[in-house]
Amino acid sequence: MSATATKHTGSGPVLDWSAGHGPVTGALSATTGAFAIATTGAATGMPPGWALAAGAAGAIGHTVAGLRVRNAGRTLATRAASWLVGAGWTTWAMTHGPLTWAALGSLATIGIGIGAAARSTALFEEAREEEALAAELRQVAAELSAERRAIAAEWVERIHRICGITVRVLGVEQWPTGAGYSLDLEPAGGITYHRIAQDSARLSADARLPHGCTAVASPGIHQGRVIVDVTTVNVLMEERTYPTDYGTLSLMTGLPWGYRTNAENVLAYLREQCALVVGPTGSGKTNMVHTILAGFARAEDVLTWVIDLNSGSAGLPWVLPALNGEVKREDGKPVRPGVDWLAGTYDEAVLMLDAAVKVAKQRKMAYQDLLSKANTDLLPISPQIPQIELVIDEGAEILASSDRALRKLAEKILEVIRIARAMGVRTVLTALGATGSVLGNLMIRREAKVRVALTGGETEGMDLGKMFPGTRGLRVDQAPYKGAGFMGTPESPAGLFKAWRILPNQIRDIIAATSDRHPTLDSVSAKAAGPDYARRWDAERTAWMRDQPAMDDAPRPDAEGRPAGGGLNLSALRGEQAAPGAPEDEMLRRFRAEIDAQFATAPEPSTPGSDAPPARPGGLNLSALRGDSSDAEGATAGREGGPDWLADAIAAIAEAGPTGMKPSAVADRVNRSRQAVREALKAAAERGELVYRDNGPHSVYVHPDHA
Predict the structure, then answer these.
(1) Which of 160, 270, 360, 689 has the fewest CB atoms within 10 Å, counting from its CB?
(2) Do 178 and 108 have their domain in common?
(3) Distance (Å, rounded) from C-alpha 433 to C-alpha 430?
(4) Which of 445, 436, 443 is nearest to 410 (CA)?
(5) In this structure, how many other beta carbons lie within 10 angstroms of the beta carbon of residue 19?
């Protein structure tokens, strides 16, 4: 019996008794077994025929087992012969004695023969298995080759018939996604890919491709080769949500903006390039902007600044969840907004653009040693020196505007585009259409090499020839779906693509997942940007973000325009005009008399010079009807002592202890508007009744006892 040592422990080798035999161990096992049986049989007088019968049974058993596993005939014969020869020697040795030199020499010879035969049959079986696998692969390759030859022959005939060009197909590659295939062509007579590209629509129709599928020609490995991508499955028709893998990205390795018709991601490389995204209303442009902001948020070497003069709507979903505490990190630390700076007003946009220009100029001076060591004229972008991406919603319209104020803003945008490429400040502009007014600016055409045209089936204002000059065969009707369109970069020619659908809950998830990934502005740039950048999240600067109307709680007007409900209609508070024909004083007198008859209204204000303190109102305060400038929402915050509810607010802040309270929390506590609460708390802080603790979006008011 033989065994193979597989490993060693402290007590000695551990033997693997289940290991199979090789040519050497198999021969040793056979000869030692035969010798042991012959010696035992001769000593005990065993009938010699028993050994011969056992050998015959072993030969038959191995032959049956070999047939079941489909061994070769040579292998079956070798194993059967080994059993029979061993059994014959054992029978002879038991008769004449196993301990003679003749018996031992013949046994050794038999062992060597068995080992050599086993080795030969093992090699033969291996070669036989390899040949079987190779034959199977050749059969598969032959089937694939036959399919490829059929495709090649079909397109050679089609291109010759449609385009009048003779081509030779050098290769056919099936896409791993199963959505189509690519043809590597070599046209005859020095014809370039443009001749085939201009007949893309006719080739697609002749091939009976489904709607949304195309046959697009692009440059090959050299000018004499053409690649034709044929889409057979319309992946643009289905809606795909943004991938939930929010892993780390880098500006240097490309940011995914969507997927091509072959279902592969299309990347945007923006280290040196600006980008232009156009799309009419309803084409999915806002969703595309959120996709772009998601890529920037996931990048470890990008800081995003957003300008949207339409109330900052493009950036608010990336800011408000963090400012309002709607998202939280697992470690309990504050969550940073998804964008680094948001400008929703003209003045804030001016501050942002001025800061961008200052950053670019300061970097040029301060990082000369770094550029020299790196032997480059491009600032090495990294998490320590991040690139600033300015996303300007409808920025192309700003550049084309004739308004005097917007023209000044446009000059600043163009200055950023012109001077800041090497220093890592780039822009992403959006527009409502690919028109001459948008693309008429030379700076945009020269710098915005990454271009996206979302069509959504819209034909008006979508001049794809101007958007992608030199590219033929692009038609709006090829991308009739929302979020679909064309995208071209310096690395990949213009072609069909579709942006992912990014949902609001995904935006919140990305904010939470990438909060600790956002880089901080390098000290050189932060110093250049100055206090305008440092105080960008101050309460006064972000008040417009948090004062969003609660539409669900707003009263809805009835059919006559009056607020719904059965309460009082205090039209004086809304500035409504008196009914025609009724004098205003008489109307107010009758209205006040009616209210006084039913409710305990507030007394009239004390006359000047009166020493009696005014009584605390116990009922309705109709001061608006008396011309009083104060209202119930805290317009008296500027007066000495503040509004009536300020005492409750100060008491709530005192109860909060050293952590203090945000103005939004105070507003919810006293049931007043946030703007009124901020004004009242600010005035109280100026009087020393409260202490304001400035912490950006997490600023709070603290009672002096806990400050």
Answers:
(1) 160
(2) no
(3) 9
(4) 443
(5) 13
